[in-house]
Amino acid sequence: GDAARAKDEL
Amino acid sequence: MNLFRLFGDLSHLASIFILLHKIRTTRSCRGISFKTQALYVAVFVSRYLDILWEWVSLYNFVMKVFFIASSCFILYLMKMKYRPTHDPSIDTFRVEFLVGPCALLALIFNYKFTFTEVLWSLSIFLESLAILPQLFMLQRTGEAETITTHYLAALGAYRALYIPNWIYRYFSEGVVDPIAVTAGLVQTALYADFFYVYFTTVIQGQKFELPA
Fold first, then answer.
1. Which of B35, B84, B106, B109 lies at a C-alpha separation of 20 to 30 Å from B126?
2. Could you say which protein family the record assigns here (chain B) (predicted)?
């Protein structure tokens, strides 16, 4: 999978 | 949004209300580490200040505002209103030993070398270790009020529930956030000992006491 920051997580 | 994350966030919300309830009903912040609470303010302000330039959802916005405001309010209660009930002599964890290494880690591990992204990384690393002064204090005193242990259990459950959330997201969306996952695993592992004592004593109706 892509490594990215989940912007919707708190 | 999946149920793991929703319940994780709700558990986080619950932990704040339990802590506020504890302070109000006992009119005391005895047993609560000021250093841990101060670290949470740093964590939430550095991570959630993005509400000023980034819109995700109403849920996301409201939660972020709540966590910034409530952590600041708790700090106010501890430093002003219930100041005499806080004993700094047992809150002795050296926070500088956390902040320095976390800052270094954030400079190395981030998704983009920009001010806000490094700040985000810093908040993630700092959050994973922010509970240490509190656990250290618990270790020193060897016991805790039941309500305080409920607070810690809810707080620990929050990040623990994020782990199945990440696994779910990996399979359903194919995305993985290695920085948050690594820090989240560390954060949850730190609670292992606490949870063991919590489930074997408090849940059975006994007082939380650590073996000498």
1. B84
2. Belongs to the ERD2 family.
B35-91: pLDDT as tens digits? 999 999 999 999 999 999 999 999 999 999 999 999 999 999 999 999 999 889 999
Asked if residues B190 and B131 have their Cβ atoms less than 8 Å apart, the reply is yes
Given an 8 Å threshold on Cβ–Cβ distance, is A5 in contact with B174? no
Q: B191 with B160: CB under 8 angstroms?
A: yes
Interface predicted TM-score of the whole assembly (ipTM), two decimals: 0.88
Q: Which of residues 1-10 of A touch B (CB under 8 A)?
A: 1-10
Name the residue ranges covered by the structural domains of chain B. 3-207
Residue B75: half-sphere exposure toward Cβ, Cα within 13 Å:
15
Residues of B within an 8 Å Cβ radius of A: 1, 5, 9, 12, 48, 54, 56-57, 60, 63-64, 67, 111, 117, 120, 162, 169-170, 173-180
Which residues fall within 8 angstroms of residue B124, CB to CB, at 6 or more apart?
Answer: B47, B106, B179, B180, B183
Tokens for B48, please give them: 């959630």
Residue identified by tokens 């993630």 is B124
Q: At what angle do helices B146-173 and B178-190 cross, to 10 degrees?
A: 150
Name the residue of chain A whose CA is nearest to B180's CA: A5
Helix (H) or strand (E) holding B20: helix B3-26
